[in-house]
## 1
Amino acid sequence: MKHMVLSCVKHSGGSTAAKMDEQLAADLTSWGLDEKCFIAIVTDMASNMNLLCKLTEEKYPATKHHYCTDHNLQLTAVKAYSGNIALQICNDAFPDGTECYDIVGALKKVKAFISHVRQLRMSKAKLDDAQRQVFAGKPVCVLIQAMKTWWCLTHMILERIVDLRDPIKDMFWQEF
């Protein structure tokens, strides 16, 4: 089994299912590929992609639509860290509420802190200096910025914050 990118085309005025269907047919023809060779299409979950795949499965009966696993994981992770689901998980784990933490609020504060440090040179310099003092001889790490398309990034962000907790404390202690 082989896979290939047939083309990479910028669609002006948006990427409708009809335009992408036309492009797909043109690409198959330009490559001289028989429709029997076209057995799968992998997309995200956008409505235009779903419609494209419906058209594709009608036109090429051997073709099956599959959702991108990475996109599914990313959407699941975003929902897991959203207010309602995070609160439900917390309430299920600790029905009495004694051990429940504001996960969503904590994530917002972490992301705001990261954004602040990454945007201001002075803050970044203070964190770099604090790392050099706390972790003498080790390379300076940068804070990881959130991106909606990376499903595992929230975990990486929190892991980096935990790793840098002592330099972050030191950074703020220096100000007093």
## 2
Amino acid sequence: MADNTTLIETDIGRDPDDFFALCYLISAGVNISEIMVSPGDHDQIAVVKFLLKECGLSNIPVLADKRDRDKSSATGMHTRLLNKYNYPLRVLPDGFSDEIGCGEDRDVFTMGPLTGIASFLNNGGRISHATIQGGFIGYSQHTTDVVRLSKFEGKMFVPTFNLNGDKVAAIKVISTSSFNRRFVSKNVCHTIVYDSEIHKRICCVAPGNRADELLREGMGIYLSYHDSKKFHDPLAAVCHLHPEIAKWEYGGAICEKGKWGWITSGGDDQIIVDVDRDAFWEQVAFPSG
């Protein structure tokens, strides 16, 4: 793990796996500087602050990407956890993402639109490295023998939710030349699925800390009314700390008419094309920095 502090951007609440990715990063001992929430609804803020409080990290600022937001984004799993521990369902942010000054260099981990990260750059912020959950590379663009999904066969461009959440911000972050980026692509993310068998495997390992406990508890709640969960963001979180568990292709992300693809030459960024799944689940069970 790098020595730099890590700036995180998340759209937590819209999909439960943001919560589990944060649990992993906290358990692994990542030095988090701020957490930026997109768009920043008060129920989203409540979920992040609940997790930080439970893990003894209430000093970490939780910032909203947008002002004057108070709609609802949290799912049933989040609400059940907050109710169980008598935590308020709506909490105000500590501030706003566009107020972050430059300060020291930061690593960046994103699992949502890149609104706050773009603001950080616009304010003179310096990024050492960024891991971005999102992007796409076609199977024909590399020679690696990978797990393939029929829905992506023959495709070179697909929409990806996080990059399209704020396309202007995404292009700003991608076009800034002062740092390299790793993209955790849609076609690999969709092959990582947490189900009841994985849950049994994970729960056979005693949790090492409160973040581990909450990951297990949250997934137990989720699996009580779903068969499985695609683990997009936890995969990206593990790859942020342990890129060695994955295979990567160099190049750069490109956008055409709201769909994203990859150029395999002339770029220093990387995109995931496959992952050691056993190594990934080992990290979920035994997080390490």
## 3
Amino acid sequence: MAKKSKTIRHKLGAIAAGTILLIAGTVGVVKRTINPGEMVTAVIDGDSFKIGDDQTIRLLSLNAPDIKYCMGKEAKEFLSKKILDKKVILKELETDQYGRVMAMIYLNGENINEYMIKNGLAIHLWDSSTQLKILGQANDFAREERLGIFSPECYQTESTKKGCDIKGNIIHNTNAKEYTMPSCDRYALTVIEKYKGEDWYCTEAEAQKAGYIKSDNCK
């Protein structure tokens, strides 16, 4: 699949000219004609959409919240208003380990990936794209301005539920679910990122029912 991705990237320079572009789909390589871009036929969520022939494209270098989590619906709405029923240019195409096609998306010269991150509608993921620095700066801006997923609605150190101060966290990389209580070490430094599905709980039993186990920081 890496060999196909290399072929894809090699051909991107001629997109505007309407040449044949190879997109690695979930069922092999599909030939497409870019003239001058791809029409967005549906928006799935804040980081993926469909183009012709029901081909799904995922925005490269970012993750938007699931629809059911904080800012998930808003992210989909923003992306829909921005690109639905419009032609976009796909650059730096890659295929991930799940066979999904990922790309930098441009509309009238604007980088849509940057737009989503800068407005706090998605979090930047480290990558090797040419836009790494720009996307990183966009993420820093959203965090500093407390926009979207970094707003008090989604990014919390204090509970908004009276009497519910147990923090349920999803550990980065392992996706393990752990909960901490005020008596636990590093409790004050633990942030609830509700856009990831983390939440507050009133009792240990409630946290355990949601699939969390007590953190090793708790004695």
